Amino acid sequence: MQKIDWLLDKYGESHQNATNKLIHWVCVPSIVFSLFGLLYALPIPFVERGLWTNWATILYAITLFYYLRMSMPMFLGMAAVCGAMLLGVNAIYHAVGSAGGLAKVSFGIFALAWVGQFIGHKIEGKKPSFLEDIQFLLVGPAWLLHFIYKKIGISY
């Protein structure tokens, strides 16, 4: 069994309940999006904030390296999904007109999504996987993507 299969299977062990799975389909992408928003809002000293010059892009690059080590299809899928999220965060930043406004919106999404996650795990009756191993914070988005890949016939 490849490491990616083991990680996805291990993550899936605490995500069997249909309600918890549904909550994760909403909350995991929301958490990733809001985390990008919170990081985008933070200034980088001596650098003008822009689409590719912000802390969110740095996190994006680091996490893409993790997914590349996992598998090329996961890397490509997460590059596309997270790239689209960065574009969305950039659009919100320009719509609200300030880093503070973006931070407020992102924090609200972040807090609500984590409440949802913990409600889902309460329903499931199992603690979140990341409490056992922090890398499962990165496995969660890949776990969702692997369902899409299976449905459309892409090997991961």
Structural class: mainly alpha
Percent of residues in beta strands: under 5%
Helix content: over 70%
Count of DSSP H/I helices: 6
Low-pLDDT parts are: none
Average pLDDT across residues? 94
Using the CA coordinates, give the radius of gyration: 16 Å
Describe this structure in words.
- It is built from six helices and no strands.
- The longest helix has 26 residues, at 99-124.
- The model has no long low-confidence stretch (mean pLDDT 94).
- It is an all-alpha fold and 156 residues long.
- It has helices at 3-13, 18-41, 55-70, 72-96, 99-124, 136-152.
- The protein has one domain (3-152).
Summarize this structure as a short list of keywords or feature phrases:
mainly alpha, 156 residues
Fold topology:
Elements: H1 3-13, H2 18-41, H3 55-70, H4 72-96, H5 99-124, H6 136-152
Helix pairs in contact: 1-6, 2-3, 2-4, 2-5, 3-4
Short summary of the structure?
By secondary structure, this protein is mainly α. It has helices at 3-13, 18-41, 55-70, 72-96, 99-124, 136-152.
